[in-house]
Amino acid sequence: MRKLKETPIMNMDVTMIPSINEETGELNQVAFSWTLSPRNGGSSRDLLTHNVNSEQDWKARINEVNFYIGELVEIVTSEGEIEPLMTHTENTHGLSKEIAMQTVFPPHILSNNDDLTFVFHDEIFHTGTNKVVFKQEDIQHLLSKIETYEN
Q1: Closest among 137, 31, 138, 147 to 85, alpha carbons compared
Q2: What is the CATH number of the domain that holds 129?
């Protein structure tokens, strides 16, 4: 299930991917594949170079995106905020205008039959708090398409 959030300088595209254990039919984890890309195709430069003016800025940006970005992401439900188990950034520097990440959350984020809000507190590009909501009815529809899932 895919959702898009636009900000003044970038788009945030988020896809939810539940992982099911084939043997037990139980939910293993819920992954989110998400990208940040220049808004409307942006400039000819990739998003990593936005407001980078020196080699020191570049090194700081690479460090933030590769090692810090996972600390800026959470899932919010009626029960509160849930931190990710891990976040991985694809190493496509200079090959793509976008930044691609995968963030994994524990399976219990789907246990309370609630809407899920994927939140990115952007302290890197300074676009503020960006939220994408996954409605419970859409989540249930997605899970119903996975034959082995037992709720």
Answers
A1: 31
A2: 2.60.40.10
What percent of the chain is modeled with pLDDT above 90? 29
b/e for 61-91, b at 16 or more Cβ within 10 A? beebbbeebbebbbbbbeeeebebeebebee
Q: Which residue bears the tokens 């970038």?
A: 10
**For the purposes of burial, counting CB atoms within 10 Å of the CB of 132, is it exposed (0-12), middle (13-18) or buried (19 or more)?**
buried
Asked if the structure places residue 120 within a domain, the reply is yes
pLDDT digits (tens, 9 = 90+) for 37-58: 887 655 556 777 778 888 898 8
Mean pLDDT (whole number) for 67-72: 89
Furthest-apart CA atoms within the chain: distance in Å:
52
Residue 149 belongs to a domain? no
Q: What is the pTM of this model?
A: 0.84
Domains: count for the chain: 1
Q: What pLDDT digit, counting tens, does each position of 89-115 carry?
A: 887 666 677 888 999 999 988 887 789
Domain containing 31 equals 2-144
Does 151 fall in a domain?
Answer: no
